[in-house]
Amino acid sequence: MKLEVVNIQGQKTGREVDLPEDIFGIEPNDHAVYLAVKQYLANQRQGTHKAKERGEVAGSTRKLKRQKGTGTARFGDIKNPLFRGGGRVFGPRPRNYGIKLNKKVHRLARKSALSSKAASGEILVVEDFSFATPRTREFVNILNNLQLADKKAILVTTDFEKEVVLSCRNLKKCSVMRASDLSTYAILNSHTLVLSEGAVEKIKETFAN
Predict the structure, then answer these.
(1) Is pLDDT of 115 > 80?
(2) CA distance 203 to 186
(3) For residues 176 and 182, what is the distance between their CA atoms, to the nearest angstrom?
(4) How far lies 45's CA from each of 14, 141, 175, 176, 187, in Å?
(5) pTM for the complete prediction?
(6) Domain containing 61: what range?
(7) Which residues partner with 174 through β-bridges?
(8) Where residue 6 sits, what CATH number does that domain have?
(9) Do both 33 and 54 map to the same domain?
(10) N or C: which end of the chain has fewer CB within 10 A?
């Protein structure tokens, strides 16, 4: 699969990049994509929730009333979960929500996401560029030139470009990500995937290893 390379003015450069069929042209595996997205969302959970149970609530352990002869139910101490201020029954405890995903499944999910984007024509390749100083206005102009002003887009770069990241930081619908950090969730969560020429080569290297 070949895609034309455009510059930051949105004009064709006359060059083309080759997107390998084994990365951008496979039959998407929906279940692998589901597992990868599930793992990503699970890893975002902090798992720091905690509620005090009966043994952790402050209060006296004195029996409130005698066991029999009162005509009502038997009571224990004031920390009974049925009482206001008592402990919670089976409350949440700190835990790790992360799930394990095999490396091959993870790679298959990313390939499936990239292939799905390529099949729907939602991948754009731009020539490498950089900013001397962070300028959000210049980045907005680039998005307008690429007709992506109103679309959710991810710019994938070869390496960390500080000026480009700072220029995009205040924009809600656009983000910048390194090719090595590109995840299945990020690919699917964007409308258009904007790849720099260097990022395409980096993706090829990543899947070649």
Answers:
(1) yes
(2) 15
(3) 10
(4) 46, 36, 22, 23, 20
(5) 0.82
(6) 47-96
(7) 153
(8) 3.40.1370.10
(9) no
(10) C
